[in-house]
Amino acid sequence: MDDPLTEAPAGERPIYPPPSAPLDVARKLYSRYRLDDNGLRTLVAWRGGWMRWHTSHWAETDAAELRSEICDTLGDVDYMRPVRKNGEIDHYEQTPWSPDKRKV
Predict the structure, then answer these.
(1) Residue 38: which domain range?
(2) In a domain, 9, yes or no
(3) Quick check: is 3 in a domain?
(4) What is the pLDDT of residue 35?
(5) Is 73 part of a structural domain of the chain?
(6) Is 61 part of a structural domain of the chain?
(7) How many domains would you assign to the chain?
(8) pLDDT in tens, 21-69
């Protein structure tokens, strides 16, 4: 494990960036959907919506469906929450990401 803030030991829940870093979370989520096993793009933002590759064609993906998938993913991951003592970070505690409307 190179970075305890972003990598989880084998068998543990994946570690994602914290809710306080929404761009980092979005990048990690997007990297999960962006390419398939063959390196082909599978999800793109296009004309204010989202398009997903379906074997032989692009089809528009409902934003609510994509949000639901994001919530499902974030519901199964943790982040490293700083625990402070006297205003200084003492250690990090693995904490469930717990997505909600405000965070997603």
Answers:
(1) 22-96
(2) no
(3) no
(4) 81
(5) yes
(6) yes
(7) 1
(8) 999 999 999 888 788 888 888 999 999 999 999 889 999 999 999 999 9
